[in-house]
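Minutes, methods subgroup
Present: GH (chair), OT, SY

1. OT presented the first of two proteins processed in the latest run. Sequence and structure tokens recorded below as shown on screen.
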Amino acid sequence: MFKFWTSLRTYAWDVDGESEVMENPGYCSGSFDGLHHPSDDDDDEMVDIAGATLDFSTTDDVPPLSSADYNEYSSSSRAAGMNSSGPSKLVDPLEDPLPGLGTYEDFNTIDWVREKSKDRDRHREITNKSRQSTVALLHSISDAFSGWLLMLLVGLMAGALAGGIDIAAHWLTDLKEGICLIGFWFNHEHCCWTSNETTFQERDRCPQWQSWAELIAGTSEGASAYIVNYLMYVIWALLFSFLAVTLVRAFAPYACGSGIPEIKTILSGFIIRGYLGKWTLIIKTITLVLAVSSGLSLGKEGPLVHVACCCANILCHLFTKYRKNEAKRREVLSAAAAVGVSVAFGAPIGGVLFSLEEVSYYFPLKTLWRSFFAALVAAFTLRSINPFGNSRLVLFYVEFHAPWHLIELAPFILLGIFGGLWGALFIRANIAWCRRRKSTVLGHYPVVEVLVVAAMTAVLAYPNSYTRMSGAELISELFNDCSLLDSSQLCGYAQPVNMSETSTGNSLADRPAGAGLYTALWQLALALIFKMLMTVITFGMKVPSGLFIPSMAIGAIAGRLLGVGMEQLAYYNHNWLIFKGWCSPGADCITPGLYAMVGAAACLGGVTRMTVSLVVIMFELTGGLEYIVPLMAATMTSKWVADALGREGIYEAHIRLNGYPFLEPKEEFEHSSLAVDVMRPRRGDPALAVLTQDGMTVEEVETLVESTHYSGFPVVVSQESQRLVGFVLRRDLLISIDNARKRQDGIVGASLVAFTEHSPPQPPEAPPFLRLRSILDLSPFTVTDHTPMDITVDIFRKLGLRQCLVTHNGRLLGIITKKDILKHMAQIANRDPDSILFN
């Protein structure tokens, strides 16, 4: 069987014969200051990111080929060569596995076909050996079980980290307002748990918890106390945000942002070394707590997906099957994405569907089962830690009891329209702001930007109780269904005149709005405007920042406002036709908290374009099967409206902004171009650099390799015929020639290089030839020059190709790379084709 050996590096054809260098300010979400190409034989890629130089050869990912390992191997190879039987002995460079052969360099795309072929060969070998001995059979069983063991470890590790993040973020958020005297490590709620001096009206007040005004000024009332608390709130917010951005900048530049755009790109086959490493995990975990606690308009749900994927990547190194195969590792990362959502929302099934719908590029059935198992383990671990002390996995778990009615579908669809409009507006505004950040001096001062935004957020948020509280607490407050014992301002209804209009069952009858509720409504309206503006400029800053919670908060505010309006409309107009028959006086007709939940789903759907997974996540949050139809109606409406205004979700927009080589599987290719229109070389370009199967010397091959920057070369029968034989990788070629010089006596610059199976005829006095057929891919993917590009794009998407050769009647004409397709699609969409920054 042929092995599919295709390129290690996306083939970059440049008219001037020079490598393309990515220049982009900033250091986060792929916004690198510079990507410096090393010399052709140097495998240590260095990336300078906003003053922090990262050496990706020392990260947790498998490095390409370190010089120490190679020198050690070369010396042993040379020693072995001395004991060989003379110059006539032919040495196959791949007789023994060479260090670095078949690995990938940084910022390159993996070859899915080759990786899957390698795994099939490995599995076939293990299966054959298992029939020969008991030890081999046990090894086969352990190999089959290793995937489930890895999923168990990922779930345990991610669940434990998520529990720690929740506890620490809750404590630091409360620390901005005061401190517990019996133990500074207690948050406000835990501090007052054991107190016997709390009252029902002021259940959050106890002597053990003191505000900063009580500690500093000795009083909790008056203007001086308010100013002291205000100043301490702002100071703590600035301190937390400063620590977060400084740690990210100094130790792990990849720890900023949401991480989901990069995870999607990595799962599609792209390699970003260090992005899922141990330093990124440590710093992202710490700074995520600090960023959430600072009060910035961001959430921790998106970054938790990044954290879970870091855990999976690190644990993959414990298992050879996943450490040495990039495609198998991406199956684990797909399951880890499901784990991240599972611990973020307490929604294991929603997490699996999120990974399938939104993140994963390749999701076989086996990955579905393992994702489900890992999400289950993570949710169980988080439940065992019980970070919120309420036996729930999230802070804003709610439970509604009143049914919804058919007439309410109209306001639910209205919320869907609002969510779609907001989603499209947010994406455009945020991308415009991020592009401005990249192209102006603003991007050169990330610390200043974070501090200014944190100061603005804290100063404007403190006077309004709904913006002062954390995003999760705000959502919990908005989802809440009022009861008789509820002291929230949102439950500030006037007492009904007729006392017979009281609660029935678990729910309260609709009541007229009181002064407290009116105050809450205008505060919520101001909070809606504040959240909208601050979320636009916060998402994409150089701190860990998720988008789920801010989007849900905006939708929940809009939904609660609409819900209260519908409730009052029904209360004062029972005799209207739309309310007759189901909303009688004294009945609980409208549940404002349900509207908040539907609005939250609509806005999150409008921003991310999630549908099925979002509905399941919201269903798992509420535990109410009867609310699936309202959620589906609002979510689908928001997607339709947002898609009508722009086809990209926020993550796809950021992928395009950062120039990642990502072929969107949901996007249709509708242009009628052919392969010959996209392939390189174009008319007027230099001829394609090729190798012949037996007519070139070692010196000629080395000269061709050194004079170009291509990552692979087609091999043809001869320069005249141009009949295609196969494809060889630059990296494999260099390693094999260097290895042969040291192991095979007599290999000199004049030695012929042969990619044929039989020895070519040569004079007796000629130096021995170098046979490199072992590194030749004899079955490169090819298309004819008249293949429609929509079929070619489908081949690239479904097979995960990096390049495809173009032929005409068996003669080689050119090559199409993934980058060529992305540039062609950008030109069709009237975008700058040079925005595809990565080679």
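2. SY then presented the second protein from the same run.
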Amino acid sequence: MSMDITSFLLAAQSPDSKIRTEAEASLKQFQEQNPSAFLLALSVELSNDGKPMESRRLAGIVLKNSLDAKDASRKEHLVQQWVAIDASVKSQIKESLFRTLRSSTQEAWHTSAQVIAKIASIEIPRKEWPDLIGSLLSNMTLPESPASLKQSTLETLGYVCEETSHEELEQNEVNAILTAVVQGMNLAQHSAEIRLAATKALYNALAFAQTNFENEMERSYIMKVTCETATSQEVEIRQAAYECLVAIASMYYEVLEPYMQTLFELTSKAVKEDEEVVALQAIEFWSSICDEEIEIQESFSDQSEPPHSRFIEKALQFLVPMLLETLLKQEEDQDQDDSIWNLSMAGGTCLGLVARTVGDDIVPLVMPFVEANISSPEWRRREAATYAFGSILEGPSVEKLSPLVHAGLDFLLKAMNDQNNHVKDTTAWALSRIFELLHCPASGFSVITATNLQPILGVLLESIKDTPHVAEKICGAIYYLAQGFEDDGTNSSNLTPYLPQIISSLIGAADRTDGADSKLRSAAYETLNEVVRCANAVETVQIIEHLLHAIMNKLSQSFDLPIDKEKQGDLQALLCGVLQVIIQKLNVDKTKHIILQIADQVMILFLKIFACRSSTVHEEAMLAIGALAYATGPEFGKYMPEFYKYLEMGLQNFEEYQVCSITVGVVGDICRALDDKILPYCDGIMSLLLKDLSSGDLHRSVKPPIFSCFGDIALAIGAQFEKYLSYAIPMLQSASQVCAQMDTNDDEIMEYGNLLRRSIFEAYSGILQGLKDAKPELLVPHAKHLLQFLEFVVRDKQRDESVTKAAIAVLGDLADALGQNAKILFKDCSFYVEFIHECLESGDEQLKDTALWTQGMIGHVIVS
């Protein structure tokens, strides 16, 4: 297809929608009919300095989007499309892109740098572009290379490092990249633009520099150049250099000792004197050091002396005063905007991390600042003192904090009457921190007593009427206050007498109309849920029943409110969330009758919600229906004829995959509620579940719950599951294969792998138990495969505890269901002996019990 791509690219940006639509259709047609020619034409357009910038810009965007996508299946399709292009065409595209790096137009070479990196991310793992790094580096060394080419090349090297894994480049390539980048940072030789590009490239290349950081000479040179760059004249370069130092603190903490004095001097100067963007990174450096030391301490929690360099402890006398000074640099309206990140917030966050790192040692360094400023006539000093106090509540011991908090609590409660909103906002936050961290009657310690509870609640319930942002923080304080009273070991809760007042105040806060820009409504309902969840069930039945009717009324009225659909959906979602918590709370023998009495009315409301189109409210309504099914048991069957169509819609909702995932979970709840009465709906449900599993479009996170759901269905319908066996088992075996081929070095992949493994075992457990009494022989042909998969998982030390529990359970179910049929299988393998022993050694009582049962089942099979 021959076409003038320039005119179409320009027309695709026309304000005239008719011209724009026609041009987009022509471009799409070109792309579909000849993808390789299309990409080549785009790369030529991008490289041509004689073309309009508008067409070059769009060519670059389309080219980049033709190589990468956020959606995993779409991305894989684009990768395969690129791989399939003829090598000579790929070569021409690459030549165009390299030519663009020489362009005089920065926007063009900037886009080209990104596209080269996208291609590199596809080809480097396949060893298909061996001369890429060499070609880029030659741009840096040729005497005639203009400054703009060096700048564009450094930017490209940075993007290539960002897009590829450090395992995929040869060490000599890494060395060459680092040499070029560090030389590019040289003040004497290069312009500011080149030095900035080089510093940003170093940031992306640091992950590749493991071997170089192990070599003292190379490491010291990189550190020297980075520290020198951190004192450049240009703000942007200083900021980029500090970003490198932050990354180095995280990646190479263990080799930083010789440089810490220099780094302390640099960061101190930056925090006190530099522009805010630089100072923020200097603080972030110390936050990263804290993160590393906290992680090391937690991983060696059973040892008294964690093996780290104690950088924070050594710097404490100087670091804490520096951070306290930053707390005084607030912005006037930062309490109104949760997205603001400034020096005072960064300093407070770092102070909190320092407290977690050194514990008690921070208290004597911070408390004089608090005491000197908490009553200051200047609001900034009062707020900073409050922020400092709240920031050090996690880390120090209860013994160290207890007298301070007992003494400070009254003061903070009075400060809720401060004239300054900012001070009140921070005070409310500090109170919520106290209740979160120092109010746990179950552990034997709480700052809240029978004596001070009433005045505390008096202040909180008055302050919830304050400005929306203060009220939102007060919701947080009430949330943790209620949470602390959960499981306090007594038959009666001190909170019960105040519950009606608390509930009324939270609903009042949720109903406010002045909090348009705040998250007050969500915070109020979230807190209400926690208050209900933690309430003493026996004492509060009438209160919760009254709340149930009030929330049902609100949900009923919400359909007629004069608000837009999105706000209506958000409100209904929150109300469904409350109903779910109430249903779960009342789902005990003494109060279940209350749910049964209102089930019809509440189900009508939920069904009315499904008639609307809002994924947010569908998720919450589905979860609430799951709770209702679990609570009403067989009685739920009467709702199925009407509800089933919405269940089907949920299972087919690929785009809003969270809705799909929750619907799968609700199918499990309904199976447990109805048992074999679910049978009339099983053909439809299984058909949709199998279709979901076969789909390349459905988000992978939905697939593990589907396998677990197979187990729920099999348990519910028993021998009737036979007709689905020939579909379900191949799916399970295929998923087992996927688990075996996963990249064990990728944490995200392994997290998904653990979910998948657990769900496969849960499916087999349900199927084995479901068929045990009627047709266990149906599973004999598949038992060997299951045992092989079990052995593979057991040998993998990266399995998490939930996988271990599911594995030991299915091992027992296999022996229990197959009996004599499993005898020869168990005699032919021995891995399970060690596995059972491992589980019996666990500190988890439930796991030990299951392991004992499994041991008995296998023993019974073998000796019989």
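Chair's summary of item 2: The chain is about 70% helix and 0% strand.
Next meeting: continue with the remaining queue.
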